[in-house]
Amino acid sequence: MAEYNTENEFEEKIVQVNRVSKKTAGGNKIGFSVLVVVGDRDGRVGVGLGKAPGVQDAIKKGATYAKKHLLIVPMVETTIPHEVFIKRGAAKVLLKPAAKGTGVIAGGAVRAVVEAAGIRDILSKVLGTSNQASNVYATLEALRELRPLASKEKVLGKEDRKGEKEASKLMEKDRQSVNKSQKNKTKPKNQPKTKKESKNGPK
């Protein structure tokens, strides 16, 4: 039962199924290539392309590959931490964070990846191509470009932000004091005249 539960924690979505035929000496060899998106709806998502003579075998291959190459997506509550734009080949994908309750405003390819990752509020726009596979890989690349530290900065409370401001002010004061001390050291001081300089003047 434990193994069964670990397998079922991932949700599989079939994005594209292609029928491929290859001419051989004995006749046409027919196969299928299936693009599968796998995610646990809790910040992990993966994409895999499976090829096999049968559709079910191709799905299994794609899902197995996707589970071995999972991507951890940083999130802030139900959305992404910041805006990201990616261009991969002919595909251009724009992802923007959205307010809570907005929902997933995305097309089929982007929606499959985003929902599998567990993002529930997001705005997106797909440009360049309508190829589902290209858009899926571009979306995955865009999620990979998200900065994990940005989510922590937004989660910080008011007290932490006040502390950061005070710390930055103190650092600026220290820098100013160091600069003043360096300027004072560089200024020439009035040195007393020696006996030779006072009698005969400077050489």
Would you kindly provide a written description of the structure presented here, covering whatever features stand out?
- By secondary structure, the chain is α+β, with helices and mostly antiparallel strands.
- It folds into 2 domains: 2-71, Double Stranded RNA Binding Domain (2-Layer Sandwich); 74-152, Ribosomal Protein S5, domain 2 (2-Layer Sandwich).
- 43% of the residues lie in helices and 29% in strands.
- The protein has 7 helices and 8 strands, in the order αβββαββββαβαααα.
- The protein has helices at residues 2-8, 55-68, 108-117, 132-144, 148-155, 158-186, 195-200, and strands spanning 11-24, 27-39, 44-52, 71-72, 84-88, 91-97, 104-105, 122-127.
- The protein is elongated, with a radius of gyration of 31 Å.
- It starts with a helix and ends with a helix.
Order of helices and strands: HEEEHEEEEHEHHHH
The largest sheet is: 4 strands, antiparallel
Give the overall silhouette. elongated
* Strand content bin: 25-35%
From the N-terminal CA to the C-terminal CA, the straight-line distance is 100 Å
CATH domain class of the largest domain: Alpha Beta
Query: Pairing-aware structural class of the strands and helices?
Result: alpha+beta
Classify the fold: give the CATH topology of the largest domain: Ribosomal Protein S5, domain 2
Mean pLDDT: 78
**How many separate structural domains?**
2
| Tally of contiguous helical segments | 7
